[in-house]
Design brief:
This protein has about 100 residues and is an all-alpha fold. About 70% of the residues lie in helices and about 0% in strands. The chain has one domain (about 25-95). The protein contains 3 helices and no strands. Helix 2 (about 25-50) runs antiparallel to helix 3 (about 60-95).
Length: about 100
C-alpha cells in the first residue's frame, strides 16, 4: 500500500505576506488585532503584579513575581516579532502591490 505524502508545515515567516491573505487589508487588520491582544495581555500581567503585596507569604509573592516576569518577557518577544517581522512584511507587500 503506498504511503501518502504529508505536507510539511510552512512557517508564515518564510512566506510572502501576500500569499497568506486574499484581500490586501487583512494583513493590516491582523496587525491591529495582534497589537490589541498584546496590550490586553500586558494589562492582565500588571493586574497580576498588583497582587504581589497582598500575597499571604513570601513563597506566594515569589511565585507571582517569577510568573509575571516570564509573562512580561514573552509578551515583549511577541511585540518584537509583530513590530519586526510582521510590520516589515506588510510594508514589502504594500510596496509590491
Amino acid at each position: 500500500m503506498p504511503r501518502s505524502k504529508t505536507r510539511k508545515p510552512q512557517l508564515a515567516v518564510t512566506k510572502d505576506i501576500g500569499d497568506l491573505f486574499d484581500y490586501p487589508d487583512l494583513p493590516v487588520k491582523l496587525r491591529q488585532d495582534l497589537y490589541v491582544l498584546t496590550r490586553h495581555q500586558r494589562v492582565v500581567i500588571n493586574k497580576l503584579r498588583a497582587q504581589i503585596p497582598e500575597a499571604k507569604n513570601s513563597d506566594a509573592r515569589n511565585a507571582i513575581q517569577e510568573i509575571t516576569d516570564l509573562l512580561i518577557h514573552r509578551n515583549d518577544q511577541t511585540e518584537e516579532l509583530i513590530e519586526g517581522v510582521l510590520d516589515r512584511k506588510i510594508i514589502v507587500y504594500h510596496k509590491a502591490r
